[in-house]
Hints:
By secondary structure, the chain is an all-alpha fold. It contains 16 helices and no strands.
Amino acid sequence: MPTPGQDTPPPTAPPTGGAGRGPFAFLLRLRPGEGWAVLTSAAYFFFVLLSYYMLRPVREAMGITRGYDALPWLMTGTLLVMAGINPVYAWFVSRVPRRVFIPLTYRFFAVNMLVFLVLFQVLPETAHVGLGYAFYIWLSVFNLFVVSVFWGLTADVYSREQGTRLFGMIAVGGTIGAMSGAKITEWCVQGIGLAPATMLAVTILPLEAAVQCVKRLLRWQADSPARSGVEHSGPASEPTSDMWSGLRAIVRSPFLLAIALYMLLYTTTSTFLYMEQGRIVSQTFDSAADRTAAFARMDFWTNALTLFTQLFLTGRVMRVIGVGGTLCVLPIITFGGFAALMIDPSFAVLAVFQVLRRGLHYAVDRPAREVLYTSLGQDERYKSKSFIDTFVYRTGDMIGGWTPKWLGAAGIAVGWVALPISAIWLAVGAGLGVMQSRTAARKNRADGPR
């Protein structure tokens, strides 16, 4: 009861979003006020990956039109394109606010899709191989940029504490989007007979839906402190007007350099495994149908593992072993998997290795890696991050694509290189956990009490 002379406190407003009540919210570790934001973030990621995975089968078919030997060259071409695009993107981010540059990024790629669709319609068949290679490179650029922008905004909207609880759950939307996109393309191409290039027009719709999710998230970020008192980064400032600040931040920051090295080692070992997968599958299965079925089985179990882990385990794993411990999971699996393949290079070993690695990458490694950015500033989230997620990523792809060729020519198994790389990767992951805790502590001291 209030004492005389005191105002009666106003009634507590009900939490928005319907989160934080009932056993389902408890299992998902939601708190009051977070429900609609998490749902919108998951829908945003759903639409982003839906658009990409509707086009991914088209890209893969175009990339191997003249055999797998073209893939290392396509990876090299993608890296060169990334080198040219990153300064332009950094300049753009430096001059327009987030509410403008994020939607325009997605709409820019949507316009590109229409351009490719027209070119496939008007150019003669003889030009389609070269155009297909150009499309392969473009979609590789598209994938990394749209996903990097998504995680940049997500790290901006949520706090470090929320990221450890919620990023795995949010990633579920992307997993469902990836599964749905592949099925939609299969149905459109085989079921109703659409030409593969026609899928370019279909994917414009999910990109525009992603833009609408962006607008809702930015409104929630601006309004939620007054509305629900939820702890997150709050109404954020914009990136600075210096287009080179992101690169300078990487060079000057041991933390960002460690993130870049972690990414490089991850993508290099990923491409090693991708090349080994192609070799083992081609030696194990004679027909294209059997190979397709083998890939489908691996994809099914990967998605099953990813969904279960994202829904119920990711937040708890990060809480129990920390971000650094979570970042060590994938290097340990990679070290053990390549060691097992050196002992028994069979499809069964490959399948278990690939399912565990890919499933836990999407379920725990990627969300933990994105938590690293929640303690950083706007330039690091939108400029440094995009450079690491695109240029550094594709550098690892190029290294991983060419190295097996060189090792094969010398008669050396790729595992002899993958094992020490995985050990270094493990050390970097553990170090990132320690550095992230220190960075978060410095940021909290600088911000002062909320």
